[in-house]
Design brief:
By secondary structure, the chain is of the alpha+beta class. The chain contains 17 helices and 21 strands. Among the domains are: about 140 residues, Succinate dehydrogenase/fumarate reductase flavoprotein, catalytic domain (Flavocytochrome C3, Chain A, domain 1); about 140 residues, Methane Monooxygenase Hydroxylase, Chain G, domain 1 (Up-down Bundle). The protein is globular and about 75 Å long. Bound molecules: flavin-adenine dinucleotide (FAD).
Length: about 650
């Protein structure tokens, strides 16, 4: 291991460790790899499964689908979520749709095309084997969900309907109006409830995982706080699965549900799980613009709206006329102009940057000039208001309720906002992290989207992981179990419990002058300003210094009222914000070290002449997997080289 001191990080913010590899993905023809892995993975016979136990953290699409499937298979599953019902997981918010290579439209789609689009959309920073498997599983997901009764939109003839999402030229997105996540989650939830009733899954709501127990080198349990009584509990199993979602709320303002946090994965990271590509954040181009400092949440306007909505700004920054009064000749439909082949359906990273550019030029609309128009006038003229209402009605209603403007009559105003995190815990092809027995699924892992996720691919990945991948890989590990029983007397368990209790006591005893939220907001500002849509070497250095100071201030001046033995949201948030602060630093370090632009990671120093992201494949065609360097220590970078055998790495073009 060498202490890296070079121009990137003269103040040496990290160490470099050995390269790593994913040893689980088979070689050979890509279309056979998943079959081969399933065949070679050791099996557990049905009679033995009931002797094996699995803890699953999270009941979103990734966790609920995994719990239902493993329960049905006969394992003893214990599930946790912090909401009062599994059904309130953040997945419920997903709006626009889920991709699958069914080619119902007969428009040239195929498993290979979905694979190709996703690798390219991710700016060549995802693993080919994983993405190909995802494209294969996509087809099965739709069948599974239809069998569960998920009410996907249908065409007049009764077939499932499809629409398009960014970064593709086919229609492969299945949807249930603007509530696709809700309908999919109800399907997964019903399957989960069935297993709860059958006794194979034990469900604990309002329970938050605060620590992972790693005993004798294996993930064997979790420390949980009962959020109502404050009781600290331990739970043990033969394997642990984290399906705890993404960490976009590190930015404070995001489209994520308020409760989304990084604690489960960050605690596991501190126990040895590598954190991969933390700087890859997705900034979604179509969100309702920020309207003031008091806001704690941003609202997404689904990407599906870009099927029919046209994005534009006035040609001149001086033009302050209301949108409907600006004639066609004075409008700049900039995405259609710059990217004629994909038009308004370019991928999110590209659409977001283009919106930022026109606003930076002074042509933005609305308060503060931080907005662009998303206009449905043409669609309404072409299809009729009724048809537009049928497709997008609930999204239009939501917009009208939030802004007080009628989007059927005046264009929506939108601006990019933090939406999704491509980074997450590093996993191999089996979805196993660098800690044996710890598996990670859904948005919580880093696996399939590279540096930019295409729209409608997160639901696909979460459900692929939970229904199809994990149930066919975790058996390989569990076949060696059941492992030796452990209980609270094991030193690893005692240490984990003591550390949770110690942290809670510390939060309650600081008695400082600032609220938890004020720290979170400040962190969010730092992250948005320096590690948001555009990153620079200078800005990232500043951010790292500022976050380190903020961490010290937090631990000496935060004020958490109340006690542990009650429902205490300030206490819950204190733990989450403490973890966000540490994660924020790692994100900035990761962004600093990756001196190229790729996907959602745009380094101002690395762009083409026309302002597009410029990758440096010779130096950065790798996954950055970070090992925790100990309290106060430097994180250790392990590189997993990315090899492309099927898709040629080239500069992305959507022109
Ligand atoms: C507004 C919005 C719209 C979206 N629309 C789409 C779309 O149309 N198509 C698409 O593909 N993607 C969409 N996405 C992305 C997609 O919804 C998410 O990536 C996906 O739902 C994440 O699912 P998940 O199961 O991994 O995590 P989540 O649904 O976030 O579930 C996390 C679970 O983990 C639990 N949990 C977390 N931490 C702990 C802890 N410490 N202890 C106990 N439990 C814990 C939570 O209680 C919850 O049950 C959208 C995202 C947003 C924000």
């Amino acid at each position: 291991m060498s202490d890296v001191i070079n121009s990137v990080d003269a103040d040496s913010v990290y160490l470099e460790g050995e390269d790593i590899a994913d040893t689980k993905a088979p070689a050979g023809p890509i279309e056979k790899r998943w079959d081969e892995r399933r065949f070679n993975a050791k099996l557990v016979n049905p009679a033995n499964r009931r002797k094996l136990s699995v803890i699953i953290i999270g009941t979103g699409l990734a966790g609920a689908s995994a719990a239902a499937t493993l329960g049905e298979a006969g394992y003893q599953v214990t599930s946790f979520c912090y909401q009062d019902s599994p059904r309130r997981a953040h997945s419920i918010a997903a709006q626009g749709g889920i991709n699958a290579a069914k080619n119902y439209r007969n428009d040239g789609d195929s498993i290979y095309r979905l694979f190709y689009d996703t690798v390219k959309g991710g700016d060549f920073r995802a693993r080919e084997s994983n993405v190909y498997r995802l494209a294969q599983a996509s087809v099965e997901i739709i069948d599974q969900c239809v069998a569960q009764g998920v009410p996907f939109a249908r065409e007049y003839g009764g077939l499932l309907d499809n629409r398009s999402f960014g970064g593709v030229q086919v229609s492969r997105t299945f949807y249930a109006r603007g509530q696709t996540g809700q309908q999919l989650l109800i399907g997964a939830y019903q399957a989960l409830e069935r297993q709860i009733a059958a006794g194979t899954v034990k469900m604990h709501t309002r329970h938050e995982m605060l620590e992972l127990i790693v005993a004798d080198g294996k993930a064997r349990g979790v420390v949980i706080r009962d959020m109502v009584s404050g009781e600290i509990e331990t739970h043990y199993a033969d394997a642990v699965v984290l399906a705890s979602g993404g960490y976009g709320n590190v930015f404070f303002l995001s489209t994520n549900a308020m409760g989304c946090n990084v604690t489960a994965t960050w605690r596991a990271h501190r126990k040895g799980a590598y954190f991969a590509n933390p700087c890859y954040t997705q900034i979604h181009p179509t969100c309702i613009p920020v309207s003031g400092e008091y806001q704690s949440k941003l609202t997404l306007m689904s990407e599906s709206l870009r099927n029919d909505g046209r994005i534009w700004v006035p040609k001149s920054g001086e033009d302050k006329r209301p949108a409907p009064d600006i004639p066609e000749a004075d409008r700049d439909y900039y995405l259609e102009r710059i990217y004629p082949a994909f038009g308004n359906l370019v991928p999110r990273d590209i659409a977001s940057r283009a919106a930022k550019n026109v606003c930076d030029e002074g042509r933005g609309v609305g308060p503060g000039g931080l907005g662009v128009y998303l206009d449905f006038a043409d669609a309404i003229a072409r299809l009729g208001r009724k048809a537009v209402e049928a497709k997008y009605g609930n999204l239009f209603d939501m917009y009208a309720q939030i802004t007080g403007e009628n989007p059927y009559e005046t264009p929506m105003r939108i601006y990019p906002a933090v939406h999704y995190t491509m980074g997450g815990l590093w996993v191999d092809y089996d979805l196993q992290s660098s800690i044996p027995g710890l598996y990670v699924t859904g948005e919580a892992n880093f696996s399939d989207h590279g540096a930019n996720r295409l729209g409608a691919s997160a639901l696909m990945q979460g459900l692929a992981d939970g229904y199809f991948v994990l149930p066919n890989t975790i058996n390989d590990y569990l076949s060696a179990g059941p492992f030796e029983k452990i209980d609270d007397s094991h030193p690893a368990a005692a240490e984990a419990v003591a550390s949770v209790k110690g942290r809670i006591e510390k939060f309650l005893s600081i008695n400082g002058s600032r609220t938890v939220d004020s720290f979170h907001k400040e962190l969010g500002h730092i992250m948005w300003d320096y590690c948001g849509m555009e990153r620079t070497e200078e800005g990232l250095r500043k951010a790292i210094t500022r976050i380190r100071e903020l961490k010290q201030e937090f631990w000496s001046d935060v004020r958490v009222l109340g006690t542990n033995e009650e429902l205490n949201q300030a206490l819950e948030r204190a733990g989450r914000v403490a973890d966000f602060i540490e994660l924020g630093e790692l994100m900035c370090i990761d962004a600093l070290v990756r001196r190229e632009s790729c996907g959602g990671h745009f380094r101002a120093e690395s762009q083409t002449e026309d302002g597009e992201a410029l990758r440096h494949d010779d130096e950065y065609a790798h996954v950055s997997a970070w090992e925790f360097g100990g309290e106060g220590g430097k994180p250790i970078l392990h590189k997993e080289p990315l090899v492309y055998e099927y898709v040629e790495m080239k500069q992305r073009s959507y022109k």
